[in-house]
Design brief:
single chain, mainly alpha, Glycosyltransferase, 9 strands, binds alpha-D-glucopyranose
Length: 425
Protein backbone atom coordinates (compact mmCIF):
# COMPACT_ATOMS: atom_id res chain seq x y z
CA UNK A 1 0.00 0.00 0.00
CA UNK A 2 2.06 2.96 -1.36
CA UNK A 3 4.40 4.83 1.01
CA UNK A 4 2.01 5.48 3.89
CA UNK A 5 1.36 2.71 6.38
CA UNK A 6 -2.19 1.62 7.08
CA UNK A 7 -2.13 3.27 10.51
CA UNK A 8 -0.96 6.57 8.98
CA UNK A 9 -3.97 6.62 6.67
CA UNK A 10 -6.26 5.89 9.59
CA UNK A 11 -4.75 8.51 11.92
CA UNK A 12 -4.87 11.24 9.32
CA UNK A 13 -8.40 10.41 8.24
CA UNK A 14 -9.69 10.40 11.82
CA UNK A 15 -8.01 13.76 12.39
CA UNK A 16 -9.87 15.29 9.42
CA UNK A 17 -13.21 13.86 10.53
CA UNK A 18 -12.79 15.15 14.07
CA UNK A 19 -11.66 18.55 12.88
CA UNK A 20 -14.83 18.99 10.80
CA UNK A 21 -17.19 17.62 13.45
CA UNK A 22 -19.63 20.29 14.68
CA UNK A 23 -21.34 18.15 17.31
CA UNK A 24 -24.38 16.54 15.72
CA UNK A 25 -23.21 16.93 12.15
CA UNK A 26 -19.97 17.24 10.21
CA UNK A 27 -19.20 20.01 7.70
CA UNK A 28 -17.74 18.78 4.36
CA UNK A 29 -14.84 21.21 4.81
CA UNK A 30 -14.18 24.48 6.59
CA UNK A 31 -14.91 27.66 4.60
CA UNK A 32 -16.25 26.35 1.30
CA UNK A 33 -19.06 24.22 2.82
CA UNK A 34 -19.94 25.33 6.38
CA UNK A 35 -23.24 23.41 6.85
CA UNK A 36 -24.59 19.84 6.71
CA UNK A 37 -24.85 18.22 3.27
CA UNK A 38 -27.14 15.26 2.73
CA UNK A 39 -25.14 12.54 0.99
CA UNK A 40 -21.90 13.79 2.52
CA UNK A 41 -23.31 13.03 5.97
CA UNK A 42 -24.52 9.53 5.10
CA UNK A 43 -21.14 8.59 3.64
CA UNK A 44 -19.30 10.34 6.46
CA UNK A 45 -21.08 8.12 8.98
CA UNK A 46 -19.44 5.12 7.30
CA UNK A 47 -16.05 6.56 8.21
CA UNK A 48 -17.06 7.61 11.71
CA UNK A 49 -18.27 4.10 12.55
CA UNK A 50 -14.66 2.90 12.56
CA UNK A 51 -13.80 4.96 15.63
CA UNK A 52 -17.13 6.06 17.17
CA UNK A 53 -20.19 4.02 16.29
CA UNK A 54 -22.65 6.11 18.32
CA UNK A 55 -21.44 9.29 16.65
CA UNK A 56 -21.96 7.72 13.22
CA UNK A 57 -25.66 7.12 13.91
CA UNK A 58 -26.08 10.69 15.13
CA UNK A 59 -24.77 12.04 11.80
CA UNK A 60 -27.68 10.42 9.95
CA UNK A 61 -30.24 11.03 12.68
CA UNK A 62 -29.50 14.76 12.62
CA UNK A 63 -30.03 14.84 8.87
CA UNK A 64 -33.41 13.13 9.18
CA UNK A 65 -34.54 15.55 11.88
CA UNK A 66 -34.76 18.05 9.04
CA UNK A 67 -36.77 15.87 6.67
CA UNK A 68 -39.67 17.77 5.13
CA UNK A 69 -43.28 16.83 5.99
CA UNK A 70 -43.71 15.53 2.41
CA UNK A 71 -40.80 13.08 2.88
CA UNK A 72 -38.03 14.93 1.04
CA UNK A 73 -34.65 15.10 2.74
CA UNK A 74 -33.04 18.41 1.76
CA UNK A 75 -29.59 18.68 0.22
CA UNK A 76 -28.33 21.26 2.75
CA UNK A 77 -29.32 21.94 6.37
CA UNK A 78 -28.26 25.44 7.41
CA UNK A 79 -27.68 24.77 11.11
CA UNK A 80 -25.81 28.02 11.66
CA UNK A 81 -25.57 31.42 10.07
CA UNK A 82 -22.57 31.80 7.74
CA UNK A 83 -22.12 34.54 5.17
CA UNK A 84 -19.29 32.64 3.55
CA UNK A 85 -21.66 30.45 1.51
CA UNK A 86 -23.97 31.33 -1.36
CA UNK A 87 -26.86 30.65 -1.95
CA UNK A 88 -27.88 30.74 1.71
CA UNK A 89 -31.28 30.53 3.44
CA UNK A 90 -32.33 34.02 2.30
CA UNK A 91 -32.21 32.81 -1.31
CA UNK A 92 -33.87 29.41 -0.80
CA UNK A 93 -36.60 30.68 1.58
CA UNK A 94 -37.91 27.15 1.99
CA UNK A 95 -39.89 28.05 5.12
CA UNK A 96 -38.44 25.31 7.32
CA UNK A 97 -37.93 25.91 11.08
CA UNK A 98 -34.20 25.28 10.71
CA UNK A 99 -33.52 26.66 7.23
CA UNK A 100 -32.77 24.12 4.50
CA UNK A 101 -32.33 24.20 0.75
CA UNK A 102 -35.39 23.22 -1.30
CA UNK A 103 -33.95 20.37 -3.37
CA UNK A 104 -32.60 16.93 -2.52
CA UNK A 105 -29.45 14.83 -3.14
CA UNK A 106 -28.59 11.17 -3.90
CA UNK A 107 -30.49 8.88 -1.53
CA UNK A 108 -27.58 6.96 -0.11
CA UNK A 109 -29.09 6.72 3.42
CA UNK A 110 -30.66 3.26 3.01
CA UNK A 111 -27.33 1.80 1.97
CA UNK A 112 -25.42 3.61 4.73
CA UNK A 113 -27.81 2.59 7.50
CA UNK A 114 -27.74 -1.05 6.46
CA UNK A 115 -23.95 -0.99 6.47
CA UNK A 116 -23.88 0.62 9.90
CA UNK A 117 -26.33 -1.96 11.21
CA UNK A 118 -24.67 -4.99 9.64
CA UNK A 119 -21.26 -4.08 11.04
CA UNK A 120 -22.36 -2.75 14.42
CA UNK A 121 -20.62 -4.03 17.50
CA UNK A 122 -23.43 -2.72 19.71
CA UNK A 123 -26.22 -4.68 17.99
CA UNK A 124 -28.97 -3.67 20.40
CA UNK A 125 -28.37 0.04 19.99
CA UNK A 126 -28.01 -0.40 16.24
CA UNK A 127 -31.35 -2.21 15.99
CA UNK A 128 -33.09 0.49 18.00
CA UNK A 129 -31.59 3.31 15.96
CA UNK A 130 -32.11 1.59 12.61
CA UNK A 131 -35.75 0.85 13.49
CA UNK A 132 -36.35 4.55 14.20
CA UNK A 133 -34.81 5.55 10.87
CA UNK A 134 -36.62 2.91 8.77
CA UNK A 135 -39.96 4.72 8.28
CA UNK A 136 -38.18 8.00 7.60
CA UNK A 137 -35.98 6.56 4.87
CA UNK A 138 -38.96 4.71 3.47
CA UNK A 139 -40.91 8.00 3.33
CA UNK A 140 -38.06 9.59 1.38
CA UNK A 141 -38.01 6.71 -1.11
CA UNK A 142 -41.77 6.98 -1.53
CA UNK A 143 -41.42 10.75 -2.03
CA UNK A 144 -39.00 10.14 -4.89
CA UNK A 145 -41.23 7.81 -6.84
CA UNK A 146 -44.35 9.91 -6.20
CA UNK A 147 -42.84 13.26 -7.09
CA UNK A 148 -40.07 12.52 -9.54
CA UNK A 149 -41.56 9.69 -11.54
CA UNK A 150 -44.99 10.98 -12.55
CA UNK A 151 -45.43 8.45 -15.38
CA UNK A 152 -44.52 5.56 -13.06
CA UNK A 153 -41.61 4.41 -15.21
CA UNK A 154 -39.54 3.23 -12.28
CA UNK A 155 -36.89 5.93 -12.76
CA UNK A 156 -36.74 9.31 -11.04
CA UNK A 157 -35.57 12.62 -12.50
CA UNK A 158 -33.48 15.34 -10.93
CA UNK A 159 -34.78 18.86 -11.52
CA UNK A 160 -31.62 20.76 -10.62
CA UNK A 161 -28.00 19.71 -11.35
CA UNK A 162 -27.15 20.12 -7.67
CA UNK A 163 -29.51 17.27 -6.84
CA UNK A 164 -27.29 14.83 -8.72
CA UNK A 165 -24.36 15.44 -6.39
CA UNK A 166 -22.29 15.67 -9.60
CA UNK A 167 -23.12 19.36 -9.75
CA UNK A 168 -21.09 20.53 -12.72
CA UNK A 169 -21.10 17.43 -14.95
CA UNK A 170 -21.02 17.69 -18.75
CA UNK A 171 -24.18 15.55 -18.61
CA UNK A 172 -26.29 18.60 -17.79
CA UNK A 173 -24.93 21.01 -20.42
CA UNK A 174 -27.37 20.41 -23.28
CA UNK A 175 -30.50 20.19 -21.10
CA UNK A 176 -29.31 23.22 -19.16
CA UNK A 177 -29.50 25.33 -22.34
CA UNK A 178 -33.27 25.34 -21.87
CA UNK A 179 -32.94 27.11 -18.51
CA UNK A 180 -33.12 30.88 -18.97
CA UNK A 181 -30.46 33.23 -17.56
CA UNK A 182 -32.56 36.42 -17.58
CA UNK A 183 -34.43 37.67 -14.54
CA UNK A 184 -31.95 36.32 -12.01
CA UNK A 185 -31.69 38.59 -8.98
CA UNK A 186 -28.22 40.14 -8.51
CA UNK A 187 -25.90 37.99 -6.42
CA UNK A 188 -22.30 37.56 -5.27
CA UNK A 189 -20.75 34.09 -5.49
CA UNK A 190 -18.73 32.80 -2.55
CA UNK A 191 -17.37 29.52 -3.93
CA UNK A 192 -14.81 31.32 -6.09
CA UNK A 193 -13.44 33.05 -2.98
CA UNK A 194 -12.59 29.68 -1.40
CA UNK A 195 -11.49 27.75 -4.50
CA UNK A 196 -9.79 28.49 -7.81
CA UNK A 197 -12.44 29.96 -10.22
CA UNK A 198 -10.95 27.87 -13.04
CA UNK A 199 -12.01 24.74 -11.15
CA UNK A 200 -15.55 26.00 -10.53
CA UNK A 201 -18.68 26.46 -12.69
CA UNK A 202 -18.91 29.44 -15.08
CA UNK A 203 -21.02 32.56 -14.46
CA UNK A 204 -23.60 31.47 -17.03
CA UNK A 205 -24.02 28.11 -15.33
CA UNK A 206 -24.43 29.85 -12.00
CA UNK A 207 -27.16 32.12 -13.43
CA UNK A 208 -29.04 29.02 -14.52
CA UNK A 209 -28.64 27.31 -11.15
CA UNK A 210 -30.20 30.38 -9.57
CA UNK A 211 -32.93 30.75 -12.15
CA UNK A 212 -34.14 27.27 -11.22
CA UNK A 213 -34.02 28.07 -7.49
CA UNK A 214 -36.07 31.25 -8.05
CA UNK A 215 -38.53 29.38 -10.24
CA UNK A 216 -39.13 26.63 -7.67
CA UNK A 217 -39.37 29.23 -4.92
CA UNK A 218 -42.08 31.05 -6.88
CA UNK A 219 -44.01 27.75 -6.78
CA UNK A 220 -43.59 27.73 -3.00
CA UNK A 221 -41.49 24.57 -3.06
CA UNK A 222 -44.60 22.51 -3.71
CA UNK A 223 -43.09 19.22 -4.83
CA UNK A 224 -46.29 18.07 -6.47
CA UNK A 225 -45.71 20.86 -9.03
CA UNK A 226 -41.95 21.21 -9.37
CA UNK A 227 -41.11 18.24 -11.60
CA UNK A 228 -43.52 19.14 -14.38
CA UNK A 229 -42.76 22.85 -14.05
CA UNK A 230 -39.01 22.33 -14.48
CA UNK A 231 -37.37 22.91 -17.87
CA UNK A 232 -34.62 20.62 -16.54
CA UNK A 233 -35.64 16.98 -15.92
CA UNK A 234 -32.82 14.50 -16.24
CA UNK A 235 -32.83 10.79 -15.39
CA UNK A 236 -29.32 10.09 -14.12
CA UNK A 237 -28.27 6.41 -13.99
CA UNK A 238 -25.90 7.03 -11.06
CA UNK A 239 -28.57 8.81 -9.04
CA UNK A 240 -31.12 6.09 -9.78
CA UNK A 241 -28.64 3.33 -8.98
CA UNK A 242 -28.01 4.85 -5.55
CA UNK A 243 -31.74 5.07 -4.89
CA UNK A 244 -32.31 1.51 -6.13
CA UNK A 245 -29.47 0.22 -3.96
CA UNK A 246 -30.86 2.07 -0.96
CA UNK A 247 -34.33 0.61 -1.57
CA UNK A 248 -32.84 -2.89 -1.86
CA UNK A 249 -30.76 -2.44 1.30
CA UNK A 250 -33.65 -0.94 3.23
CA UNK A 251 -35.75 -3.94 2.21
CA UNK A 252 -33.19 -6.35 3.71
CA UNK A 253 -32.90 -4.27 6.85
CA UNK A 254 -36.68 -3.99 7.27
CA UNK A 255 -37.10 -7.75 6.86
CA UNK A 256 -34.44 -8.28 9.51
CA UNK A 257 -36.11 -5.88 11.90
CA UNK A 258 -39.56 -7.40 11.50
CA UNK A 259 -41.17 -4.87 9.13
CA UNK A 260 -42.35 -7.06 6.23
CA UNK A 261 -44.65 -4.51 4.56
CA UNK A 262 -41.94 -1.87 4.47
CA UNK A 263 -39.52 -4.50 3.18
CA UNK A 264 -41.88 -5.49 0.37
CA UNK A 265 -42.53 -1.89 -0.73
CA UNK A 266 -38.80 -1.23 -1.03
CA UNK A 267 -38.08 -4.53 -2.75
CA UNK A 268 -40.75 -3.66 -5.34
CA UNK A 269 -39.25 -0.21 -5.93
CA UNK A 270 -35.77 -1.68 -6.36
CA UNK A 271 -36.91 -4.38 -8.78
CA UNK A 272 -38.94 -2.01 -10.91
CA UNK A 273 -36.12 0.54 -10.97
CA UNK A 274 -33.47 -2.04 -11.83
CA UNK A 275 -35.50 -3.32 -14.78
CA UNK A 276 -36.14 0.23 -16.02
CA UNK A 277 -32.41 1.05 -15.91
CA UNK A 278 -31.94 -1.05 -19.03
CA UNK A 279 -33.49 1.77 -21.07
CA UNK A 280 -30.41 3.83 -20.24
CA UNK A 281 -27.82 1.30 -21.44
CA UNK A 282 -25.57 2.34 -24.33
CA UNK A 283 -23.85 -0.44 -26.21
CA UNK A 284 -21.71 2.10 -28.02
CA UNK A 285 -20.29 3.64 -24.82
CA UNK A 286 -20.20 0.43 -22.78
CA UNK A 287 -22.03 2.12 -19.93
CA UNK A 288 -25.36 3.66 -18.93
CA UNK A 289 -26.25 7.21 -20.03
CA UNK A 290 -28.47 10.00 -18.73
CA UNK A 291 -31.88 10.55 -20.27
CA UNK A 292 -33.20 14.03 -21.00
CA UNK A 293 -36.81 13.45 -20.02
CA UNK A 294 -38.11 16.69 -21.55
CA UNK A 295 -37.14 15.58 -25.07
CA UNK A 296 -37.12 11.84 -24.36
CA UNK A 297 -33.58 11.25 -25.58
CA UNK A 298 -30.40 9.75 -24.12
CA UNK A 299 -27.63 12.29 -23.52
CA UNK A 300 -24.44 11.55 -25.43
CA UNK A 301 -22.02 12.08 -22.57
CA UNK A 302 -19.73 9.35 -21.23
CA UNK A 303 -19.58 10.46 -17.61
CA UNK A 304 -19.04 8.62 -14.38
CA UNK A 305 -22.81 8.68 -13.71
CA UNK A 306 -23.21 5.73 -16.06
CA UNK A 307 -20.39 3.79 -14.39
CA UNK A 308 -21.72 4.50 -10.92
CA UNK A 309 -24.74 2.52 -12.03
CA UNK A 310 -22.70 -0.55 -11.02
CA UNK A 311 -23.57 0.35 -7.41
CA UNK A 312 -26.98 -1.28 -7.87
CA UNK A 313 -27.39 -4.93 -8.81
CA UNK A 314 -26.94 -4.51 -12.58
CA UNK A 315 -26.85 -7.74 -14.63
CA UNK A 316 -23.42 -9.43 -14.31
CA UNK A 317 -22.74 -8.95 -18.01
CA UNK A 318 -23.27 -5.19 -17.65
CA UNK A 319 -20.90 -5.04 -14.69
CA UNK A 320 -18.27 -6.77 -16.79
CA UNK A 321 -18.62 -4.25 -19.63
CA UNK A 322 -18.50 -1.36 -17.13
CA UNK A 323 -15.34 -2.83 -15.68
CA UNK A 324 -13.80 -3.02 -19.17
CA UNK A 325 -14.84 0.55 -19.89
CA UNK A 326 -13.05 1.69 -16.73
CA UNK A 327 -10.03 -0.31 -17.94
CA UNK A 328 -10.04 1.78 -21.11
CA UNK A 329 -10.26 4.99 -19.07
CA UNK A 330 -7.19 3.80 -17.18
CA UNK A 331 -5.23 3.89 -20.44
CA UNK A 332 -6.03 7.60 -20.76
CA UNK A 333 -5.78 8.68 -17.13
CA UNK A 334 -3.19 7.91 -14.51
CA UNK A 335 -5.69 7.78 -11.64
CA UNK A 336 -9.10 6.14 -11.45
CA UNK A 337 -11.94 6.88 -11.97
CA UNK A 338 -12.05 10.12 -14.00
CA UNK A 339 -15.52 11.70 -13.77
CA UNK A 340 -15.51 12.09 -17.53
CA UNK A 341 -13.85 10.27 -20.41
CA UNK A 342 -10.53 12.02 -21.20
CA UNK A 343 -11.05 11.15 -24.89
CA UNK A 344 -14.08 13.47 -25.02
CA UNK A 345 -13.02 17.00 -26.12
CA UNK A 346 -15.25 18.43 -23.35
CA UNK A 347 -13.15 16.69 -20.66
CA UNK A 348 -11.53 19.12 -18.22
CA UNK A 349 -9.00 17.57 -15.83
CA UNK A 350 -9.39 20.28 -13.18
CA UNK A 351 -12.95 21.60 -13.34
CA UNK A 352 -15.15 19.87 -10.86
CA UNK A 353 -17.17 16.89 -12.09
CA UNK A 354 -15.92 17.42 -15.67
CA UNK A 355 -12.88 15.16 -15.33
CA UNK A 356 -11.49 14.94 -11.76
CA UNK A 357 -11.63 11.82 -9.54
CA UNK A 358 -13.79 11.72 -6.41
CA UNK A 359 -13.23 9.12 -3.72
CA UNK A 360 -16.92 8.75 -2.85
CA UNK A 361 -17.76 7.73 -6.38
CA UNK A 362 -14.77 5.39 -6.50
CA UNK A 363 -16.02 3.78 -3.32
CA UNK A 364 -19.51 3.12 -4.64
CA UNK A 365 -18.28 1.82 -7.99
CA UNK A 366 -15.77 -0.46 -6.28
CA UNK A 367 -18.45 -1.75 -3.92
CA UNK A 368 -20.72 -2.61 -6.84
CA UNK A 369 -17.92 -4.26 -8.82
CA UNK A 370 -16.89 -6.37 -5.81
CA UNK A 371 -20.46 -7.58 -5.45
CA UNK A 372 -20.64 -8.39 -9.17
CA UNK A 373 -17.42 -10.44 -9.01
CA UNK A 374 -15.30 -7.81 -10.82
CA UNK A 375 -12.74 -8.05 -8.05
CA UNK A 376 -9.59 -7.08 -9.96
CA UNK A 377 -11.03 -3.77 -11.15
CA UNK A 378 -12.57 -3.05 -7.75
CA UNK A 379 -9.13 -3.54 -6.16
CA UNK A 380 -7.48 -1.38 -8.76
CA UNK A 381 -9.90 1.47 -8.00
CA UNK A 382 -9.24 1.07 -4.28
CA UNK A 383 -5.46 1.20 -4.78
CA UNK A 384 -5.68 4.21 -7.06
CA UNK A 385 -7.77 6.02 -4.42
CA UNK A 386 -5.18 5.36 -1.72
CA UNK A 387 -2.37 6.47 -4.01
CA UNK A 388 -4.14 9.78 -4.47
CA UNK A 389 -4.36 10.21 -0.71
CA UNK A 390 -0.74 9.24 -0.14
CA UNK A 391 0.48 11.66 -2.81
CA UNK A 392 -1.98 14.54 -2.49
CA UNK A 393 -3.72 14.43 0.89
CA UNK A 394 -7.43 14.61 1.69
CA UNK A 395 -8.66 16.89 -1.08
CA UNK A 396 -12.20 17.39 -2.35
CA UNK A 397 -11.24 15.95 -5.76
CA UNK A 398 -8.14 15.20 -7.86
CA UNK A 399 -6.80 15.71 -11.37
CA UNK A 400 -6.91 12.19 -12.91
CA UNK A 401 -3.86 12.89 -15.09
CA UNK A 402 -1.35 14.20 -12.54
CA UNK A 403 -3.11 13.67 -9.19
CA UNK A 404 -3.11 17.37 -8.23
CA UNK A 405 -5.37 17.98 -5.19
CA UNK A 406 -8.26 20.30 -6.14
CA UNK A 407 -11.22 22.16 -4.62
CA UNK A 408 -11.49 22.27 -0.84
CA UNK A 409 -8.81 20.73 1.42
CA UNK A 410 -9.06 18.43 4.47
CA UNK A 411 -12.27 17.05 3.10
CA UNK A 412 -14.63 15.05 5.28
CA UNK A 413 -16.08 12.41 2.97
CA UNK A 414 -12.71 11.83 1.35
CA UNK A 415 -11.38 10.97 4.81
CA UNK A 416 -14.40 8.78 5.56
CA UNK A 417 -13.85 6.80 2.36
CA UNK A 418 -10.21 6.24 3.26
CA UNK A 419 -11.29 4.54 6.48
CA UNK A 420 -13.53 2.28 4.43
CA UNK A 421 -10.87 1.64 1.78
CA UNK A 422 -8.09 0.68 4.18
CA UNK A 423 -10.29 -2.08 5.56
CA UNK A 424 -10.62 -3.52 2.05
CA UNK A 425 -7.01 -2.97 0.90
C1 LIG B 1 -20.25 19.88 -4.04
C2 LIG B 1 -20.49 18.49 -4.64
C3 LIG B 1 -21.62 17.81 -3.89
C4 LIG B 1 -21.33 17.79 -2.39
C5 LIG B 1 -20.98 19.18 -1.86
C6 LIG B 1 -20.47 19.16 -0.43
O1 LIG B 1 -21.33 20.71 -4.23
O2 LIG B 1 -20.77 18.58 -5.99
O3 LIG B 1 -21.82 16.51 -4.35
O4 LIG B 1 -22.39 17.25 -1.69
O5 LIG B 1 -19.99 19.77 -2.66
O6 LIG B 1 -19.35 18.34 -0.35
Amino acid sequence: MTTLKKQDFIDRAVEVLKENDRGGYTVPTKGLYPFQWNWDSCLTALGQRHFDEARAWIEIETLFQHQWPDGMVPHIVFHVHDDGYFPGPDVWRSGRPTPTSGITQPAVAGFAVRRLYDNATDKQAAARRARALLPKIDAWHRWFYENRDPQKEGLVAIIHPWESGRDNSIDWDAAFERVPTHGVEPYVRRDTQHANPKHRPTKEQYDRYLWLVQHFRSLEWDNSKLHDASPFQVVDPGFNAILIRSCADLAVLAADLGEPALAQANRDRAEKGQAAMEKLWSEEHGQYLCLDRVIGRLIDSASIGGLLAAFSAVPKARAEVISNTIGKLAERAHFLVPSHDPADPRFDAKRYWRGPCWLVVNYMIADGLFAAGQTAMAERITQSSLELIAGSGFAEYYDPLDGEPLGGGRFTWTAAMVLEFVQAA
